[in-house]
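Journal club side-thread
Mid-discussion, someone asked how the predicted structure for our own chain would compare to the paper's figures. Pasting it here so we can look after the session.
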Amino acid sequence: MPTLTSLTIYPLKSCAGLPLTQATVEPLGIQHDRRWMAVRSDGSCMTGRELPALVRLKAVPGPSGLHLSAPGMPELGVPVPPASAPRLDVTVWDDTCSAARADADADRWLSEYLGEPARLVYVDARMERPVDPKYATPEDRVGFADGFPLLLISEASLADLNQRLSQPVPMSRFRPNLVVEGCGAFAEDGWKRLRIGTVELAAVKPCARCVFTTVDPETTRADPQQEPLRTLATYRRVGPTNGVMFGQNIIVRRPGEIRVGDAVEILE
């Protein structure tokens, strides 16, 4: 039976991954995952695709807010916005939703680090962002992740890719939440329902990959040969969109607790 070997969250969209040994899984995904986001003054999302410096920003959630640190910057504690906090209409790809704004200190800190005006926003109880109805029920919601609450990839799939590359890449290039071992390469493509710990999940759609996979999280430099995306495109174009797919997008069907080492039971 496959097992869970890695559990990672990205508290601020596009920030450095934060590895965990156990976590609570909520309907929006793993607790604290992608609940914060940097945006421009017009509300458009700022990501590591165009601002690679974001991947070196470390965001650590706590009971009352977020702790930020980054190269060349003083550390900063950001409180969770109160219910009375001002709101901003923000866009995440094709979605627009109303998010709570963090305080002005957070905006100044982000703007200085990124080198352009930025604001920090938060997924509060009032924010409503439905998952694409083609793959979900009307009740399904997502925070600031690209489109789905969780992303899962098998170690065997990465090993298959790395055999084709002249320079292997780490799993961190693909920013999954869940990594599993004990299955064949791309076995996750055929999974529909699974249980990990007390959590039940639905695999609903392969994950289309973009240029962000070419950014080295250690150096923030993009690969000049556009690897590993270039190699993936030679054998992982899937579905009617002909997108380059790697990993599975996941929706939470029963929240609960999850930990590294849990068995991954394939229900369907």
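Post-session note: The mean pLDDT is 96.
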